Amino acid sequence: MPLWKDGKLGLPVREAVKLFPELNDYLDERGRLDLSNRRARILYNRAIAKVLFGLEIEYHPHGLVTPPISRYLFLKTFLRGGEKVLEIGTGHTAMMALIADKLFDCEVTATELDEEFFEYARGNIERNGAKVRLIKSDGRIIRGVIPEGESFDVIFSAPPYYERPTKGVLTEREGVGGGKYGEAFSVRLIGEARDYLRPGGRVALFLPNKKPLIKAIVGRGEKLGYSVRDVKFKVGTRWRHSLILRL
Ligand SMILES: C[S@@+](CC[C@H](N)C(=O)[O-])C[C@H]1O[C@@H](n2cnc3c(N)ncnc32)[C@H](O)[C@@H]1O
């Protein structure tokens, strides 16, 4: 486990400031960081990626500020090490693909739809000397993107999960999964995944704590013949779900 010296999976703000002195501009008089500020969030997460995971990450100016710790905790719920994995929608940081490569020694393929995010992902993969194979998606999910006949131990994704565009921090491609509860993208993914999983293979989805969304995906997964495990874990104050579907 990549822990800081205090034994915690986290990085004290004062340590992040040593790495990025610009963070001083976002501290209050008690040394607390203004995490509502996007630039402060990016710098702090870059510091965490660097110190705890040994990764140099460049964030796209408008993309989701992917936090490394939540992604690591998610991967730990289903990776043991050495698996052949596929990530759908790696985003501009390629964070999960890089962690799977570097910390879990996986053989990683990752896809991304957005042109600019794809270029950033490529930069992050090259900057870290990672062996991740990056594939540009044309809007399809697995079929037609991944060569026919190829198979994986695990297919994972932090899928778009909103039912419609939101005013928040996500771009439409990052955010909108479609369907009644935002489940449509995930449902398509688990449907296609069956043809690309090795025997005993699994799909793992990183999801927020939205009950109707989880219920819709679990229901669909069981109909498709998966056995489903819902692993809940806490990141800061928020609950997250790792939905693990096994064939
Ligand atoms: C919620 S974001 C997750 C990004 C990143 N994996 C993370 O952990 O933060 C979903 C990502 O999927 C991408 N995406 C959307 N549709 C896609 C598709 N059909 N194929 C590949 N990527 C897609 C989006 O551009 C976005 O980068």
Give the key terms:
single chain; 247 residues; alpha/beta; Rossmann fold; 2 domains; seven-stranded mixed beta sheet; 8 helices; 7 strands; 33% helix; 21% strand; binds S-adenosylmethionine
Could you explain how this protein is built, in words?
- The protein is of the alpha/beta class.
- The chain folds into two domains: 41 residues, no CATH class; 179 residues, Rossmann fold, CATH 3.40.50.150.
- Helix content is 33%, strand content 21%.
- The chain contains eight helices and seven strands, in the order H-H-H-E-H-E-H-E-E-H-H-E-H-E-E.
- A seven-stranded mixed beta sheet has the order 3-2-1-4-5-7-6, with helices on both faces.
- The longest helix has 16 residues.
- The radius of gyration is 18 Å and the shape is globular.
- The chain starts with 12 loop residues before the first helix and ends with a strand.
- The relative contact order is 0.11.
- The mean pLDDT is 95.
- The structure holds S-adenosylmethionine (SAM).
